[in-house]
Design a protein that fits this description.
This protein is α+β, with helices and mostly antiparallel strands and 430 residues long. It has two domains: 192 residues, no CATH class; 227 residues, Lysozyme, CATH 1.10.530. Strands 5-4-12-11 form a four-stranded antiparallel sheet, with no helix packed on it. It starts with 6 loop residues before the first strand and ends in an 11-residue tail after the last helix.
Length: 430
């Protein structure tokens, strides 16, 4: 959108469907020493950049079978590192089928409805025009600046015209639906990724009920050396389970059973190797494997198996990078997906734990692979529903059929830990 199409209207900047309020936002504090016109001109320029970046969102509305959004819905930001729950500090007086209050398109106030999404990945995108509204960011080892997320929202939730209006004082506002989105001036798109179901005594899909550290300990699964690492690890695992809708006892058992085999019960989020030179080992094994999308050179070493479900090959890394919108997945390869060994591989003993610096996307990549990134191109939950263990294991690693029975054993074990009952997967390939 050309800058001349961005207009100031009273105390707001209007760019298409987006509105940026000049008063009462986090950016004002950075302009205390500037003239008012300087602030307004900068805001106009920023909104022009912002709208141009999100022009494709005019096509929103392709979502089918949308649901009404309620309190405690899970939301995420494309530039954030954490998912949060949508809060309703004001009850509009209408309950949905899950017995939680309906939300409206005006429920988008920072620190009341919407909270920080962890760390902002916007980097230096706007640094020349406007500082990020948090403490000064610190560059990582690759020069990428990261800040604490403080959302600066451009107006209300946007959605296709709704068919339910809720009274707010003398006005009526559309009830919020699952296809809606918000935008942040720093380039983030905020969307709804999960709506809580009605809780029953038989099934409660809250994060607390999904899985626990005690479950992992009973399973013998390594999730961290100390209490801080363990709490961070279980939090990230729960986030991924919710995001990718791996929430039933069967789905969690299948997922964790496969993860246990792939990562050696959490101790190997990066593929091991033989010999003294990992570059030589992996390049000889994978570099010229066109089936993995590798193109020679250092592709074999860079795109070795990584994550709690080992992501392998340039093709998978590029697809995941496209999905998560982080080019570092391609440029840094296994280091950002799985992590790095913090001591020489020759010193790692079988079954040893705590020897890997876990990568940023170790659980995230596993969730993505489970729901869409696998070779079958489908959600593996569909096979779980039929207890089709062969199809699940083939999607994870079809070349490792000799371990399918072993994987079944891990799945059975974790299901029994969760429920006290037997899932009964077979102990043979017949």
């Amino acid at each position: 959108m050309p800058e001349e199409r961005v207009q100031k209207n009273g105390d707001a900047i209007i760019a298409g469907d987006f509105t940026f309020e000049l008063e009462g936002n986090w950016l004002q504090k950075f302009f205390k020493g500037f003239f008012k016109k300087k602030y307004e001109d900068t805001a106009c320029e920023m909104m022009a950049m912002h709208y141009a970046f999100y022009e494709e969102l005019n096509k929103v509305g392709s979502v089918q079978e949308e649901e009404y959004v309620t309190r405690e819905a899970t939301i995420c930001c494309s530039n954030g590192t954490e998912m949060v729950q949508l809060d309703a500090y004001e009850d509009h007086g209408i309950l949905a089928a899950n017995e939680k209050p309906l939300m409206t398109c005006s429920d988008c106030e920072v620190n009341k409805n919407i909270y920080s999404f962890g760390t902002c990945k916007c980097g230096n995108i706007y640094s020349e025009k406007l500082p990020h509204p948090s403490e000064e960011g610190e560059p990582d080892e690759h020069g990428k600046v990261k800040y604490k997320c403080i959302p600066v929202l451009c107006g209300n939730w946007k959605q296709v015209t709704g068919n339910l209006l809720i009274a707010e004082g003398e006005n009526f506002v559309e009830a919020l639906r699952s296809g809606a989105f918000l935008t942040c001036i720093y380039g983030g798109k905020i969307t709804v990724v999960g709506i809580p179901e009605k809780e029953t005594d038989e099934e409660n899909i809250s994060s607390e009920a999904l899985i626990s550290l005690d479950n992992l300990d009973d399973f013998g699964f390594f999730i961290g050396i100390n209490s801080k690492e363990r709490e961070a690890g279980i939090k990230e695992l729960k986030r991924v389970l919710i995001k990718y809708n791996i929430t039933s006892n069967e789905e969690i058992a299948f997922f964790m059973g496969e993860v246990a085999k792939e990562s050696n019960f959490g101790t190997r989020t990066v593929e091991m190797f033989s010999g003294d030179d990992p570059e030589e080992y992996f390049n000889n094994r994978y570099s010229n494997n066109s089936g993995l999308g590798n193109k020679g050179g250092n592709d074999g070493e860079l795109y070795r198996g990584a994550g709690y479900i080992h992501l392998t090959g340039r093709y998978n890394y590029e697809k995941f990078a496209e999905y998560i919108e982080d080019d570092e997945i391609v440029t840094r390869g296994y280091k950002v997906v799985g992590g790095e060994y913090n001591k020489d591989v020759s010193d790692i003993e079988p079954g040893e734990v705590g020897v890997i610096d876990i990568g940023e996307y170790a659980w995230e990549s596993a969730g993505w692979f489970w729901t869409e990134g696998n070779p079958k191109g489908c959600n593996l939950n569909d096979f779980v529903a039929k207890l089709d263990w062969k199809s699940v294991s083939e999607a994870i690693n079809k070349g490792d059929k000799g371990t399918f029975v072993e994987r079944n054993g891990y799945i059975n074990d974790f299901y029994e830990i969760l429920t006290g009952k037997s899932l009964g997967l077979p102990d043979s390939l017949e």
